[in-house]
Amino acid sequence: MPALSDRIGRKPVVVLSFIATGMSIWLLSRTGAQPMVLFTLLFATTFFNFSMICMTVGPLTAESVPAALTSTATGLVIGIGEVFGGGVAPALAGFIAQHHGIENTLYLALAGVAVGLVVALFLRETAPLRVQPKAQASAKVV
């Protein structure tokens, strides 16, 4: 997915990944005892979720800050992900499972994907192949 983002842009790939992850999680929560379908949906969820992580930690962060701040920004993004993904989300999922049933824990993941999709819709394009033509076109107009 990061390679695809070099061609068509970071924002479309991130938005596509959020939508595909959300659809996979939603379908996963609606699927019964069908092991092959469950594993296929789990694979799709993991694939698109991992592509979002790669895009966020890699190109989006690095291209959004000055070169001197790249390592700091990347560390901050990874740290926030570790705190929420490794600490807060499991605690919330445990609370949901204990009080509302384990089958409802996927709604927490869906909520996270929904929030991420809203944030992704406000991203500015940073892919060099997509940004350079626009910059050249605006330079010719002036």
Write a concise keyword list for the protein shown above.
single chain, mainly alpha
Question: How would you characterize this protein structure?
Answer:
The protein has one domain. Helix content is 84%, strand content 0%. It has six helices and no strands. The radius of gyration is 18 Å and the shape is globular. The mean pLDDT is 84.
Roughly what fraction of the amino acids lie in strands? under 5%
Unreliable runs: none
Instruction: Tell me roughly what share of residues is in helical segments.
Output: over 70%
Structural class: mainly alpha
Total number of domains: 1
Q: How many strand elements? A: 0
Largest sheet: none
Note the topology.
Elements: H1 2-8, H2 10-30, H3 35-64, H4 70-100, H5 106-121, H6 128-141
In short:
The protein is mostly helical and 142 residues long. The chain has helices at 2-8, 10-30, 35-64, 70-100, 106-121, 128-141.
